[in-house]
Amino acid sequence: MDDVLRETPVYQEMTRWAREEGLEQGFEKGLEKGLEKGRHDGLQQALLAILAERFPKLIRLAKRQLAMIDTPEVLQLLIVKMSIAQTLEEAKQYLLEADEDEEE
To answer: What is the pLDDT of residue 88?
Structure first.
């Protein structure tokens, strides 16, 4: 009975449509994830570039802290804080507090 149903044009058309729909949804999700990853990586690179210019001694600490941060908003806030930090100690404190911002 299943074989007979599967051979009907209606079934084959619905199956083809479902596959196309599934592929389209998968593509959209993959594209969205890729854009999200690209944004995240770009923010990390921007932060590291700022640190390389202003506080190069903090690069190693920053890389460790960045490995724990997944939220773009936290990275953006950290970029702003590093841009306005007046001292190495202030910048270091911002980095150490970043994982706390991630948890909120």
So the answer is: 97
